[in-house]
Design goal:
7-stranded mixed sheet, Rossmann fold, 224 residues
């Protein structure tokens, strides 16, 4: 029996790159995986390449995408990986639209799906993983609002955890309880493709993960 047999996972931004790697890893561990993206061609290729993967064609910046997706799939694991490609130029050479592109995609996705996860709510034991960036630590002067957007994803993870404690009775347990469940957190990290070798690779590339969970299982804000 594989670690995630019987679990439903939704990967937002799952058609390419890091998101596709997460889709493949979750599927390999037995999860029923839904990959959401806005490029129909890439989704079709993914469905052919990974057995059993289901696809959803949608744009995360549209207001109905988050509620419709979560109500339709009811995931045990929700990975928020979608992100806009930032405009690479000094601030004085960018328009506000270029500067704010990642805020309108990355931050909005985190806000919309995080909010809906609480309002639904997701089932006890569910996990939300937010893929951020090492730019949230050191900044990125040539990518406009990118670093600020990725840092705000960290803050949103903390705010959502706080809201969960105060507005979803019984859904949160103490930090001590979460620490006691570290082996489970490590197993999920491995299932998501974050083996020791991949940890090193993603550390070099500046990838970062923050997250929160239901019934006390949460991934603390951390840089990998």
């Amino acid at each position: 029996m594989r670690q995630l047999d019987g679990k439903i996972a939704v990967v937002i931004g799952g058609s390419r790159g890091f998101g596709q790697g997460i889709v493949r890893a979750l599927a390999a561990e037995g999860a029923v995986v839904w990959a959401l993206a806005r490029n129909a061609g890439r989704l079709a290729q993914l469905k052919q390449a990974v057995a059993g993967v289901q696809t959803l064609l949608a744009d995360v910046t549209e207001a109905q995408t988050a509620p419709q997706t979560l109500r339709a799939t009811r995931p045990d694991i929700l990975v928020l990986n979608a992100g806009a490609t930032p405009s690479m130029a000094p601030v004085h050479q960018q328009s506000w639209e270029q500067f704010a592109r990642t805020w309108q995609t990355d931050v909005y996705m985190t806000f919309a799906f995080g909010k809906e996860a609480l309002l639904l709510p997701l089932a006890p034991g569910s996990v939300v993983v937010i893929v951020s960036s090492g730019a949230a630590i050191g900044g990125s002067p040539l990518s406009g609002g990118y670093a600020g957007a990725k840092r705000t994803q960290w803050f949103l993870a903390q705010y959502l955890q706080h809201d969960q404690r105060t507005s979803v009775p019984g859904a949160f347990r103490s930090a001590a309880h979460a620490r006691a469940r570290r082996p489970r957190r490590r197993r999920f990290a491995h299932a998501a493709g974050l083996s020791q070798r991949n940890r090193v690779r993603h550390q070099q590339s500046g990838a970062g993960i923050v997250g929160w969970g239901f019934s006390g299982y949460s991934i603390r804000c951390r840089h990998i």
